[in-house]
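Final report, section 2: Outcomes. Of the targets proposed, Cytochrome b5 heme-binding domain-containing protein is the one most frequently requested by collaborating groups, and we therefore present its record in full.
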Amino acid sequence: FVPTRFTTSMVQKSASLTKPSSTVLGASTMEPTTTSKEPTTWECDDDLTECREVPACDEEQCRTSLDVRIHGEWYDLTGWRKGHPAGEHWIDYYDGRDATEVMDGFHSKKAMKMLDRLPRSKPEATKALEQNAVPDSNTQIAFRKLREELEAEGYWERDMVHEYKILGIWGALVAGAAFTSGAVPLLSTFLLGLSMTAAGWLGHDYIHGIDEYAFKLRNFAGFAAGLHPTWWSDKHNKHHALTNEMGCDEDVATDPFLFQWAPDPKQDSPLRKIQHLIFYIPFSFLFALWRVDSMKVAVDAVENKRPGAKNELYSLLAHYLFVLTVFPYTIWVPAVFMSGLVSALIVTPTHQSEEMFEEYQPDWVTAQFQSTRNAVTTNPFSEWIWGGMQYQLEHHLFPSMPRSKYPSLRERLIKFAEDNQIPGGYRETGEFEILKMNWELYKRVAEADAVPGAPPTRGRPGQQGAIDSTNSPANGISKAVGA
Ligand code: HEM
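The predicted structure is given below as tokens.
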């Protein structure tokens, strides 16, 4: 962890010369006469009466410092950002912001300990950063206390009987599908479809997990469901960090087939008007599309040398080798569509009918309560097939906690919501009622007129867009204090 600072002198020089109404011309336009080896740019006043030569800087060089607050302490992550195992786009987004909840939510004990070795922000920067950052709310502070209590009570310890039971059910379904594939193809398709949905939830558990058991099974999603762990981690953790944030959370970016709010006419689609009548078609494609995305990211991850990329690719190849050898395509293709439909019916209603946010939500805890609704299951089959997603709020607040612990959190979270006066409180609705709520939303949006200027579903700066550091609230501060 030796921090290597990016060049800042060029940035400060460039910043001091920049005027709001200036035009920047590329070197090729103005033919600079410099002999410097550094790339240069010319910056001129609007009327071109006065031009200055300024060194150009690429994205990396232009970055000043990257300061993130975690548990009340500011860390300067500038030198380390490239070392972040999940990619620098994650930490860039929190420049000048509080990242306590995402840090606690996504990381192992080992990662939390690494914090001790990271450099703290300069004291002169800290004061300015603190003034500009949104202060921690009482709800966030109370939530951190609750988390500490739960950790002390052993809520992150796995119940291995439960783990082996759910893994065993998956194995039995695959075996059942294989044995019946010749004699009873319809039953085989049904069992294989159920196994794929179950594999999706198990893979989800393991990739979120922060213990040795989960780390060992990280590639299960690739082998058993054909879903790539890094692809899933990027997409799904973004959904956890920025739940229902319009333009950032890809789980609510389902257009042009399904819309959760009336779009701008430019983003509209004729399909919207009938979305409540055809929703099951895009739902059925969920896993098929995820498999295509998984393959793309698998290759990309190997090319970009992301951690574990080769093994993740092999797990996908092993999956296809297995299903193509054991099952005829007339069984496994329909099974992919069936499992997609079942999984989409489960994942969509717990967020889509709740609050959508046009802006970044600094109080992540309150935002999770406002954007999430639990489903109350009515029978043991539902309790199993929902795969822990019925406890969506517990899962969103504590993504790395084993799912078997969620039911016992209900009373505590109800009290937490009351004590902290969270708007809407602890939200839960019967499993069929919640599906109806989702369908009614699709219908309402289908019947609404397009709204000029409505927020887009994609393309707002989220973690992936954060590499453009203009999005960073800390940008100006770092320059001002020369940090
Ligand atoms: C600033 C906000 C941060 C965000 C939003 C973030 C997000 C993430 C995400 C999404 C993952 C992937 C999790 C998975 O797929 O299992 C990850 C992994 C990881 N991150 Fe971060 N991260 C942040 C800061 C940090 C910092 C400051 C450190 C070091 C102190 C760190 C160390 C790690 C490590 C070691 C992993 C690998 C998994 C683990 O051991 O927990 N991250 N991070």
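Residues 185-208 form the longest helix (24 residues).
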